[in-house]
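User: My collaborator sent over this chain with a note saying "see what the structure looks like." That's all I know about it. Can you take a look?
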Amino acid sequence: MATVSAHVRSTRGGLVESVHEVSLVVLRPDGSPCLTAGDPAAPVYGRSSLKPAQTVAVLRAGADLTDDEVAIASASHSGEPVHLATVTALLARHGLTPEHLGCVPDLPLGAAAMRQYLAAGHGPTPLAMNCSGKHAAMLVAAGGDPAYLDPAHPLQQACRAAVDELAGPVLGASVDGCGAPAFVTPLDGLARLAHALARPADPVVARVAAAMRARPDLVAGTGRLDTVLMTELPGAVAKSGAEGVLVAALPDGTALAAKVHDGAARALGPILLAVLDAVGVPTSDGLRAVAAPPVVGKGEPVGEMRGSLTRDPDG
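Assistant: Without extra context I'll predict from the sequence alone. Here is the result:
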């Protein structure tokens, strides 16, 4: 196993303008550690990167979901029309409406989707919130119970148990931005979740991974890292989370989890490219363009974002 230091540097006009430190864990296809940066056991809020585990709990609770609905349940969607339509249809099939959702009202996450939404005269709604797919699936699994977000609710206890099983141990909990419980796990626990998606031993986990692979457009949105990675690298599964968290399973079974220390999501793409280069996975121009767009000045490239993995002298 290699121990490295992981950083993303943003340059402008040849000067390093910003540096983001990253902790990460990469597992080989057999689940053994391949490389680490930072403390593998560091406690991390996985945020939305834990959604696949929560979807596993929802399915185990008996929720009737189509494969597309499994993908949107695992998503932090951009609020594009296909996303809103999929969530609305999921609710309608179970006699529910967006007004039943317990997530906070919000605008679409994607810039283009937000402009379209506002142009249609809409304001913030629970449906447009990027976690509405997860909430719709949870609500269905809870039989429409409006108390489905209570940490003591049987569904949330099942979600905690699934996170503990797949990404744990659960070290603590708080409240996520959407209103659902947010769980703390070790960073290497997040890597184990990615490995479970890459090499699922459980048929429910396998279904979640397959649904995400089949509909990467539902998992995030146009031009976003998760969607582009899964589209440009068929067989991959990826889920990012707020405050600079990413879990990804590569087609060969390699798995990784990353946490940007300062929470800057823009550093996830460059460090992902550095990991892919380190493990010998070819990357397309399309993926590189989205993962590490140029630093611009007056609309023109004047610098770059670049991830680096530097082997520690004692590693």
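A starting point for your reply to your collaborator: Residues 154-167 form the longest helix (14 residues).
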